[in-house]
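Subject: Re: docking follow-up (nicotinamide-adenine-dinucleotide)

Dear J.,

Thanks for your patience while I sorted out the input files. As discussed at Tuesday's group meeting, I've set up the holo structure prediction with nicotinamide-adenine-dinucleotide included as the bound ligand rather than trying to dock it afterwards. The sequence and the ligand SMILES I used are pasted below, so you can double-check that they match what you have on your end before we go further.
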Amino acid sequence: MASENLNRREFIVGGAASSLFLSAAARAVEKTAKRRVALVGAGIRGTSYWGRHLVENYSDVIDYVGVCDINPGRAGLSRSLIGADCPAFTDFDTMLETAAPDLVIVTTVDSTHDEFIIKGLKQGLDVITEKPMTTDEAKCQAILNAARASSGRLIVGLNYRYGIIFSRLRELLQSEQIGRLTSVDFHWYLNTYHGASYFRRWHGLREKSGTLLLHKAAHHFDLLNWWIDSDPVEVHAYGALEKYGANNAFRGKRCMDCPHTGECQFFWDMRKDDRLMQLYHANESYDGYIRDNCLWRAEIDIFDKMAVQIRYANNVQVSYSLTTYSPYEGYRVAFNGLNGRVETWEGVPSLDAQQVDQAQLHAREMDQGSHAEVERKVHEIVTQRNFEPFQRETIPFVRSGHWGGDKIMSDEIFRGQIARPELGRSAGVRDGAMSVLIGIAARKSIDEQRPVKISELTDLEPRRARRG
Ligand SMILES: NC(=O)c1ccc[n+]([C@@H]2O[C@H](COP(=O)([O-])OP(=O)(O)OC[C@H]3O[C@@H](n4cnc5c(N)ncnc54)[C@H](O)[C@@H]3O)[C@@H](O)[C@H]2O)c1
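The structure tokens for the complex came back this morning:
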């Protein structure tokens, strides 16, 4: 029953939040009646969730005053995709000067986030950045320094925390039904559609994405930090590239004009998606950004399988893995306490006793338009205390909009509506840093074949009790 209550409360709309619980962003919202918002990085996430979704749902509290992209074609197009009547820029500094925003949203390629975060903070602006906050330790330290010196706030869009299933797990852990938490098993499976999609474009290059230990796993490491409620201390990892990249007998230039479409199970016809054709294909001439690159190109230098061990300051230990060519998309997570275990999973066909069309599932995952659709399925959470029978709890299955989290997060940021203050879901610079530091430490551990301490990386000292 608690889960149903939780679900209902997640969708409360209206009503002022108590200022006691106002997040950094919500406090910022209080400053002026309407925020002057400018966005840098007019790609799919920028134009959809942080673009059109904001314009359609928050225009009473925000004014879009500028959009910037290094690609002039995408910069121009973004105004109509977002539905904002504002100027488009190709230079960020010019946008800050001309559009005079008070809130900057950063949705560029991961390795460039630091530049815009720091410039915004240096001007005393509030900044929202997409995850991962950044991709290496030097940039992370520079962001920490800028945040300390700025009167502006940095909000990191760690939306998985707001997902209904993940919030429920946090609530269960807070209740200590299984006694003191001692270890976590967390395994994430990307299917041959979603997993492969990261190898088609910039994510496949470590220089741009920092590897999937940053780009993808930053979400998972953040969930772990938040669930465990302590800071990571030491990381030991393994990783390799064995499926994608040069690991194939044939390769083409790109899917669209590939001579191997008949024999390649990963052939992806981007021409069927008008929006992607408009956003990327029509603007290739400006920067050579190919959205449907060959998965087998030799330049790919990220890992496609990763295993990470993490020790926390409160002594909890984690076994995490990320797989990018699974036949199905999903995860399994189990929390082991001194007195029992809580576990859940998603998408495992044999457990759900149903086959799912993985291509369709991926199409829904990519749909950034829908933010909290309840499906007919349920999530099951199983709790079993030692020497007692198991208890099964079901909660409504919401998968779109990142487990329903996107909408809850934007209501919190832009309206100050904090649906579940006791869960502490808003993420600031320290949360952003701790989530990427695990990925950076894991990458270093793989490269240098040794355990890496979090304290080696920046001046942040891990704390036994996490503080966001
Ligand atoms: N939180 C989530 O669930 C979620 C989901 C999707 C994407 N993201 C994040 O959003 C960001 C964007 O992802 P995407 O899928 O939209 O990528 P994308 O490639 O579609 O968009 C990135 C855009 O940034 C632009 N860009 C790159 N470098 C730039 C620079 N120096 N100056 C200005 N513009 C620049 C590119 O031209 C492109 O238009 C990434 O950081 C990604 O991790 C988060």
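A couple of observations from a first look. The radius of gyration is 22 Å. The longest strand covers residues 374-385.

Let me know if you'd like me to rerun anything.

Best regards,
T.
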